[in-house]
Amino acid sequence: MKKYYPAFLDVSKKNILIIGGGTIALRKILSLLKCGAKISVVAIKFHSRILALQDQKKIVIVKGEFKKEQLNHRDLVFCATDNHELNQTVAQACFEKEVWVNVVDNPSLCSFIVPSTVNRGEVVFAISTGGASPALSKYLRKKIELYFGKELGTLSQILKKYRAQLLEISLQKRRKVLEELLNDKVFVDLKKGKIKQIEQKLGGNNGNF
């Protein structure tokens, strides 16, 4: 089985091609748009919401069959069809042109795979079993969703707000402040709305630690 190197990609303004116009393609499009990608979609038929996104000038659609030249100048390719022969054709063409490709639900045809994710504000959990068991990834995602609520997103925003101040103090002192703050109690406090108290621990009173 392949070994995958985990990474988070900056796809803002990257040229991404999606093959397929159904529900799975739509999910890929929506997640990539959130990250600022430039998206073209090739398919014979399109989901109504994909057509709406084109009307809103958020994506470009090309009606017709996939052609190898459509891979030119692409940074990433996602193949989201249930046509195994087409999936193989797209994957092979990408390998030949050295374009990174993800074929949905078929790791053997992928040069990269997309993990199961949980988003809490700017915090993103990525879960992968390397294609060994999607069911296990789903189970782990649900466990994380139950354990970490919206409070985690709030906490990340607070830490972002005070990051510059934290970087001004010594490493030893900064480590002590964060170790005292980052524990299970902080999530209880956030659920109770004690944001000001948490900010005070980060120097929110007068900018001093």
Can you give a write-up of this model?
The protein is of the alpha/beta class and about 210 residues long. The chain folds into two domains: about 15-115, NAD(P)-binding Rossmann-like Domain (Rossmann fold, 3-Layer(aba) Sandwich); about 150-200. Helix content is about 45%, strand content about 15%. It is built from nine helices and seven strands, in the order E-H-E-H-E-E-H-E-E-E-H-H-H-H-H-H. The strands form two sheets. The protein has a five-stranded parallel β-sheet with strand order 3-2-1-4-5, sandwiched between helices. Strands 6-7 form a two-stranded antiparallel ribbon. Strand 1, helix 1 (about 25-35) and strand 2 (about 40-45) form a beta-alpha-beta unit. Helix 5 (about 150-160) packs across helix 8 (about 185-190). It starts with 14 loop residues before the first strand and ends in an 8-residue tail after the last helix. The mean pLDDT is about 95.
Topology diagram in text:
Layout: E1 15-19, H1 23-34, E2 38-43, H2 48-55, E3 60-63, E4 76-79, H3 84-97, E5 100-103, E6 116-120, E7 123-127, H4 134-147, H5 150-161, H6 163-167, H7 171-181, H8 184-191, H9 195-201
Parallel strand pairs: 1-2, 1-4, 2-3, 4-5
Antiparallel strand pairs: 6-7
